[in-house]
Structures are given as C-alpha cells and as structure tokens.
Amino acid sequence: MEIKVCGPGCASCDKAQKTVEAAIAAKGVKADIIKVKDFQEIAKLGIFSTPAVVIDGQVKCTGRVPKQSEVETWIG
Amino acid sequence: MAETKTVQWGKMSVIGLISLAVWVVIYRQLEPFSFYLTYVILGIHKGSHLGQALQFFFYDTPKVMMLLTLIVFVVGMIRSFFTQDRTRKYLAGKRETAGNVMAAMLGIVTPFCSCSAVPLFLGFVQAGVPLGVTFSFLIAAPMVNEIALVLLYGLLGWKVAAIYLGTGLVIAMVAGWVIGRLKLERWIEDWVQELRAGEAVVIEENLSLSDRIDRGKEAVRDIVGKVWIYVIAGIGVGAAIHGFVPQDFMASIMGKQAWWSVPAAVVVGIPMYSNAAGIVPVVEALLGKGAALGTVLAFMMSVIALSFPEMIILRKVLKPQLIAVFIIVVGSGIVFTGYLFNVII
C-alpha cells in the first residue's frame, strides 16, 4: 500500500503524518509513506487544501488532520 | 433517520443549554471570588499595590480562559461547516466588490493556517476566483482572529474588540479590492498560470452534530492547550502594570501627539511574527502605560497580518513585485486605521 501525506511540513502536516504512522502500526499493515511537500506536485493531485492523505491514488481527506480511527478504516 | 437526527439535536441542545447556564453562573462569580481570594483568604491589605495586582490576576486569568474555551469551541463547530473547498467553490462564481466582501468574511470562518496559503491560492486561481477577491481572503484569514478577538474583549472591553473586528474586515475588503483594480495578474509566477492541475478533488463530509461537537472539542484541546501559557504570562504582565507602573509611561512615545508613531509601529510590526495570544497581552501593557489605541491597534495588526514567514511561503506563487504591492496596500490600510482611531477616540 502506498500512502501519500501532502503538505509543506507545518505543524498540522506533521501531525497528519504521525497519525497515519500510528494507524499503520495499530493495524499492522505494510505501507510506504511518501511525504509530498512540493506545491506543484500536490496541486497535480487535485489537492488545494492541506494536509491531505492519499491512499493508493485515492484522496481520502483534505484540509484537516484525520483521526487515527478514520485512517484505520481507510487502510482496513 | 430524520427522526434520530431530530432526537440528537434535541438532546444536544438541552445539554448545550445546561452547560452554557453553568458556564454563566461560574463566570459571574469570578470577580467576587477574586476579591475574596485576595483580601480574605490571602489576607492582603486592601488598597495595596500587591493586592491590586493579585486581584487583577485572579480575576482575569479564569475569565479569559473561560471566554477562550467557549469561543474556540463555538468557532471550531462553526468551522466544521466551512471547508476551504466549499469556500473556493462559493467564491468562484463571485465578481469583484461583492466577492471582496464575502471573501473577507469567509476568511474569518474558514479553517486556515499560513502554510496552507499556497495550495489555497492555487485552488482559487484554478477555480477562477479573481485575484483581488483571493487577496481579501488571504488578508482577512490571519488578521481577524478569534483568539485576538476574545482576548481584546476580555482584557480591554467589547468596544476595542468590535473596532478590531470591524477595521480588520474593512482593510481586507478594501485592500483586496485595490489589488484587484490594479490588474496585477502578470505578477503571479508563471508556473502557476501554466499549471495544469488535476481536477480539484472535493470530499464532501457528511458530519453529524456530534461530529461537529467533536470538532469543537478538538479545537479547544488544540488551541487552548497551546495558548494558555501566553495568556497567563500576558495577564501576569498586565497585572504587574495594573498594580505598579505609573500611568502615561508610554504616552510620550506612543501617544497621540507622536504622529510618526503609527507608521513606525507598522514598520516595526512587519518582521515581528507572533500569534494573537502572544501579542494581545503586549497590547494591553502598551495601552495601560498610556499608548494611543490607534497606534497600538496598528502595531498589533501589522504583527499578525503581515509576517515574513507568510511572505516567504507566498513568494512561491507571487513575484516579488506583487508581494511588495501587497505589503504596501495592506500596510497603508493599517496606518490609515491607526490615525483614524487616534483622531476619533
């Protein structure tokens, strides 16, 4: 599984990444986390508010830090 | 489904009203309690400097914390209705003028942090929101801040809070409108114009009332958890000034007579970067020492609305000329506001 965490690297983006990491650990799934920091790159994904989480090419949430329980259902 | 929703609303409203009533009862006891704590329990001599300072501290700290918690909770809930995606869609169909007014107001309620400014800008350009309207949003979002509003209300009264809210909105509307009139689209970075972004992904969340209440609670944990230390430090300084420092200490430097102090305050404020929670106690301290309201307000707005970190982030999408125009237009607006309040108050 490939999980992209999009955001320039501010406090809430870091929090989003930590949440994703925690969810992966809790679920025990294997996944690569890719940080996307470049704005152009992020815009190409159709994302215009950060932080955002993309799982296997599918945008799951934008403009907010997801809850760990949410992420767990996405990576189910 | 509709029925459970109604039941949920009913139950939540009752709980909400009861909580609010408890809040009001406690809030109204704070002032008498601060006197009791200072002069009876601690036995400090009435009328002493120490007594005045302590009583001020014991009253203001719980007062501001309670106000902050309430407002941050309410704003957190309101914000769950306004996502950036929704705001962008809404502004896309707006023309200038009406668009500037709407953008400035949406700037207050849409969740925003300075590092999300660039994606937001790209999204607005992509959706065809006029440049000036985009700027109205980008100016209002950091400048009109609920924490500053609460602190100003709690520490300086509702008039100062209302002036701050009103002038912040007007500056955002007018400055955005002026930037729109100047037709500066050529000073947007080329890659933005050429950007062939993917179709904007919009995730419509279907939030229940209890989800929104959770968002409110999250905001309280997040924001109040972060700023309480500034609030206490600020009130501590305020308390010391209240009890010990002679009046009119600052009058000669930042008083009404010193005409140059308004632009100086704005220029000094630009490189300074602080959150609203950190700046308001300073504002209170300056006002307490006899500085003029307009000058202090100008200083505060300059610190929170014009910041170097945000300029550096926006530099990725704007050419330096446009950033310069942005600083000049907003800075002039703030200077004008400062003079205006020094004259009328």
Quick overview:
The complex is a heterodimer of chains A (76) and B (345). Chain A is built from three helices and four strands; from the N terminus they run E-H-E-H-E-E-H.
What would you give as the CATH superfamily of chain A? Answer: Glutaredoxin
Sheet having the most strands of chain B: none
Please report the two chains with the greatest interface, counting residues with C-beta closer than 8 angstroms to the partner's C-beta.
A-B, 24 and 28 residues
Catalogue the unreliable spans of chain A. none
Oligomer: heterodimer
Radius of gyration of chain B: 22 Å
Unreliably modeled segments of chain B: none
Q: Work out the helix count of chain B.
A: 16
- Quickly name the level 1 CATH class of chain A: Alpha Beta
Query: What name does the CATH topology of chain A carry?
Result: Glutaredoxin
Distance, first to last CA of chain A: 11 Å
Morphology of chain A:
globular
Mind telling me the C-alpha Rg of chain A? 11 Å
The average pLDDT score of chain B comes to 86
CATH architecture assignment of chain A: 3-Layer(aba) Sandwich
Order of SSEs of chain B: HHHHHHHHHHHHHHHH
Order of helices and strands of chain A: EHEHEEH
Which structural class should the secondary elements of chain B be placed in?
Answer: mainly alpha
